[in-house]
Write a structure and sequence with these properties.
The chain is mainly beta and about 180 residues long. It has a single domain (about 25-175), classed as Immunoglobulin-like (Sandwich), CATH 2.60.40. It has 1 helix and 10 strands; from the N terminus they run αββββββββββ. The strands form 2 sheets. Strands 3, 4, 5, 7, 8 and 9 form a 6-stranded antiparallel sheet that branches. A 4-stranded antiparallel sheet has the order 6-2-1-10, with no helix packed on it. A hairpin with a 2-residue loop joins strand 3 (about 90-100) and strand 4. The protein is globular.
Length: about 180
């Protein structure tokens, strides 16, 4: 009986040791983006009272193996080398559904952003972060009934991520979509 209990302790100890020593997951140095959620709320258009406007908060999940995401540091310092991208590293495109096919909308201002400079601490340089972007859509200028977003990001080494997409969003949507 004592041998059986001793053997059970040995097996339990070895199992604990095996799972505790599992190597951390390795990620590529090229960033990966994915859709996490979108929050849609009615909003006021202060410049054009009476126009229908929605506030969109898009949350993008980013994973980067060496953690070199973001180009805006303290005192609005812009990481060098992004002048050709107008000092932006996150790019978002709006599509509208026309006759069952998504078509890129014309947006003179663009939804391109410079994300904060992030640097993981410790030995594991993998960065997992959620980036929230707030945008307005003024429905006086758009006539669509279904939209979606695509997005991609550059890291500081100028590796470009995959292209992530939101799900289809009916124009009358409100609330959180995950």
């Amino acid at each position: 009986m004592k041998n059986l209990i001793f053997l059970l302790f040995i097996v339990a100890g070895l199992a604990t040791f095996y799972y505790a020593c599992e190597a951390p997951k390795s990620y590529p140095n090229t960033p990966e983006v994915s859709f996490k959620s979108i929050l849609i709320e009615d909003s006021l258009d202060l410049e054009n009272p009476g126009n229908s406007k929605k506030m969109i908060k898009l949350t993008i999940r980013v994973v980067d193996g060496n953690g070199d995401i973001g180009i805006v540091g303290d005192n609005n310092f812009i990481y060098p080398g992004f002048e050709d991208l107008e000092n932006r590293n996150l790019f978002i495109t709006l599509y509208e559904k026309i006759d069952g096919v998504f078509v890129e909308t014309e947006n003179e201002l663009g939804w391109n952003y410079a994300t904060p400079y992030l640097e993981p601490e410790g030995q594991d340089k993998t960065l997992k972060a959620d980036i929230e972007v707030s945008m307005d859509i003024n429905f006086a200028f758009y006539t669509y009934d279904t939209i979606k977003y695509s997005f991609y990001i550059y890291d500081r080494a100028k590796n470009i991520s995959n292209i992530g997409e939101s799900p289809e969003i009916p124009a009358d949507s409100l609330g959180l979509i995950e």
